[in-house]
Design a protein that fits this description.
mainly beta, 7-stranded antiparallel sheet, 10 strands
């Protein structure tokens, strides 16, 4: 795997273009703000102005963004074939890396900070708790970057 990273500062309109449904390359999403978290399906409209940060992801790439003033700082990480157009620019300080994939739980079964039952609309119902496949980029013993690749529910025992 030869993952690359591209960075950009986007307007709300530019980010909305990336998030238009259906998101076939990025079927999974995690949206966050201080009082809420959401997991919309790929066919749902995402309004970036309503969220402080978020990410959409799939096997090919992850787009991660964070609101900073009236703009959005954005990072795309993925295979070179997923290279985004301008205004994204490649982050050329990455150097040689090794990728490692690991399944992780997003949180424990009883997460006290989340005050409601969550809906994971991008996945079939059922299961115990969400797991994500996280790709880690390493340079020797240094973890340089991570991205989400896939999301599924842990099977009920």
């Amino acid at each position: 795997m030869s993952e690359k990273i591209w960075l950009a500062e986007l307007t709300a309109e530019q980010l909305a273009e990336w998030l238009k449904p259906p998101r076939t390359q990025t079927p999974f999403a995690v949206l966050e703000r201080i009082d809420a978290i959401d997991f919309p399906a790929s066919g749902e409209t995402i309004k970036p102005a309503l969220w402080e940060r978020g990410r959409v992801f799939g096997a090919a790439l992850e787009l991660r963004w964070e609101k900073r003033g009236g703009k959005f700082w954005a990072r795309v990480m993925g295979e070179p074939a997923s290279a985004p157009a301008a205004p994204f620019e490649i982050w050329d300080r990455l150097g040689p890396t090794q990728a490692q994939d690991n399944w992780r739980f997003m949180w424990g079964e009883a997460e006290g900070r989340i005050g409601r039952e969550l809906e994971y609309r991008a996945m079939p119902p059922g299961g115990k708790r969400p797991c994500v496949l996280q790709r880690e980029l390493w340079s020797g013993t240094k973890l340089l970057a991570t991205r989400l690749v896939e999301m599924k529910m842990e099977v009920k025992a």
